[in-house]
């Protein structure tokens, strides 16, 4: 392979790995299942991942499970056994041990403290302390929302990483026209999805999903080389995000997620799955979807 072909192959392989992990987080699986899914040998897949990431594939799978467990512990009323079931751990005891080893505090602590100094929230927003964080999320702000039932759908797009050489955010944008043309009758909207935890994923590991959303699960062509993620059917809380610059939009999303759900407990979630649907213009506001219940 030429270097460009090799780079593209590695990117597609990473996309397939992320796709499988995201869609099968509740199941118990290992590198063998991933190798079968990606049609690459066990050892080659492990080598490729190790060479393109700052962690092994096994560590990556465990980290994603634990970061999702931290989100569920912080934002939902699920008990530890239910969280273990939702993140592929055999028992609550195995989850608790792995959680404490990874984060340095117990799952219960995640219910009272959400800020890690190396997380994207802390670094990108300049948050220096728990008190600073609480001052942001406890502020009052106007908002409107509605409930909407989604019976199915798909997110199709690409991820960009802060800490490695994956395609940058700006480089993914030209792909959107192609993605939109792949959808049936143009029924797709540009979207950004919070792929990892803004509070529990270190900045160097953080990934953002950028692409399109369609309520038609079969809307994306089979030849698409990015990520295709099925959305969870159910009731979503849909918040209006007013127009403004990117910082204004970012702060509104933070307050929806942190202030209304975690701090004020105005909305009780039974799972944590969210994505932000944008209008065509980057500063035209949009709608922020939070999964509420099945």
Automatic annotation (TrEMBL):
Secretion signal span: none
Listed SUPFAM superfamilies: Homeodomain-like
InterPro entries named in the record: Homeodomain-like_sf, HTH_AraC, HTH_AraC-typ_CS
A GO term, aspect molecular function: DNA-binding transcription factor activity
SMART domains: HTH_ARAC (SM00342)
Keywords: DNA-binding, Transcription, Transcription regulation
Domain HTH araC/xylS-type: residue ranges: 15-113
Keyword rRNA processing in record: no
Keyword set includes Glycoprotein: no
Protein's name according to its UniProt entry: AraC family transcriptional regulator
């Amino acid at each position: 392979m030429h270097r460009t072909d090799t780079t593209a192959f590695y990117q597609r392989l990473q996309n397939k790995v992320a796709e499988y992990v995201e869609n099968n987080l509740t199941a118990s699986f290992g590198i063998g299942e991933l190798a079968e899914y990606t049609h690459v040998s066990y050892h080659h897949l492990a080598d490729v991942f190790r060479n393109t990431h700052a962690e092994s594939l096994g560590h990556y799978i465990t980290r994603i499970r634990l970061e999702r467990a931290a989100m569920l512990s912080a934002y939902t009323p699920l008990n530890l056994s239910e969280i273990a079931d939702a993140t592929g751990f055999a028992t609550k005891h195995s989850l608790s041990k792995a959680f404490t080893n990874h984060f340095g505090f117990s799952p219960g602590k995640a219910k009272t403290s959400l800020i890690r100094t190396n997380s994207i929230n802390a670094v990108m927003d300049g948050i220096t302390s728990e008190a600073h964080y609480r001052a942001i999320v406890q502020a009052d702000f106007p908002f409107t929302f509605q409930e909407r039932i989604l019976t199915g759908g798909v997110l199709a797009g690409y991820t960009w990483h802060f800490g490695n050489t994956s395609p940058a955010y700006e480089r993914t944008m030209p792909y959107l026209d192609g993605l939109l043309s792949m959808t049936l009758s143009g029924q797709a909207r540009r979207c950004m999805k919070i792929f990892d935890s803004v509070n529990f994923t270190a900045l160097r590991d953080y990934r953002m999903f950028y692409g399109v959303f369609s309520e038609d699960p079969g809307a994306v062509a089979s030849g698409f080389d990015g990520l295709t993620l099925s959305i969870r059917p159910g009731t979503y809380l849909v918040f209006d995000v007013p127009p403004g610059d990117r910082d204004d939009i970012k702060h509104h999303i933070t307050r929806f997620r942190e202030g209304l759900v975690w701090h004020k407990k105005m909305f009780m979630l039974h799972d944590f799955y969210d994505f932000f649907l944008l209008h065509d213009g980057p500063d035209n506001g949009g709608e922020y979807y939070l999964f509420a219940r099945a």
